[in-house]
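I have been asked to look over a protein record a colleague put together. Alongside the sequence sits a line of tokens, each denoting a local backbone shape. I have pasted the whole thing underneath without changing anything:
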Amino acid sequence: MMLIPTHHFRDIERKPEYLQPEKCVPPPYPGPVGTMWFIRDSCGIACAIVTWFLVLYAEFVVLFVMLIPSRDYVYSIINGIVFNLLAFLALASHCRAMLTDPGAVPKGNATKEFIESLQLKPGQVVYKCPKCCSIKPDRAHHCSVCKRCIRKMDHHCPWVNNCVGENNQKYFVLFTMYIALISLHALIMVGFHFLHCFEEDWTKCSSFSPPTTVILLILLCFEALLFLIFTSVMFGTQVHSICTDETTIERLKRKDQPREHTASWRSVKEIFGGDFSLNWFNPFSRPWQPETPSDKDLVRQVSSLSDSTETTEEQSEEIKDEDSIEVIDE
């Protein structure tokens, strides 16, 4: 495919109506670590409410249909403690994934004055996001739902009503893991309960009528099987992304172009917060907190000017939808 002339590409990326510099205002002072973050998206809020409803429904069926009516008190106590502990950790992980800043880039710092203050040298570039007027660090991507650029953005998940990025990926992984575990636990208990009810009188194995008991158990079985498959797949893909140090977006964009990976164990420790310990499974412990990038970290070095300015027609359309590049000529 023919290369677009350099000047044509740069003219496209520097159109005032595209960059909208009048909307770029100085970024607010960054809040303290741990400041609550919430995305006002109706679809995401609805999905989060449905998630909590399904977990609470499973709690209701497990406790009031299977465990409390059971005559085996040891069985009921042990399974009740295990299921409620896993459900609590799952909901806690969901809250942390939903209410934690995933790694948003300061908004509105792509002003002319700020770029000039960086004192770019020949061969250096900065990537500007025209949608949120921010200078994007390496591996940051813009989310159209959060309306922010997110560092190491993996994807936007409506079930947690948030992006999955470098600051909350641990909580999302724990959420998928604990949901998969309670789904598996619920399936096992439903199987044992059916066997128990078939061997004895249905009126004695539940405080509800037999038809109601069957309907509640079948619904729980369907829910648990569906979420076991879904969350297990998500958990596997997230662990793979962490071990290869490559987000889902990067893997989709890379196609056949290889990229340099860091050591797998180092990536895992960065996400879960240090060496292996029980805190890895604790949704209340913070993951590794990256240092706040300095202004110089926003500058990227290219091997040659032509590498940063020449592009194919297909690449220019892709970049035009995402980034613009500020280049200093030799």
Observations:
- The chain is about 50% helix and 10% strand.
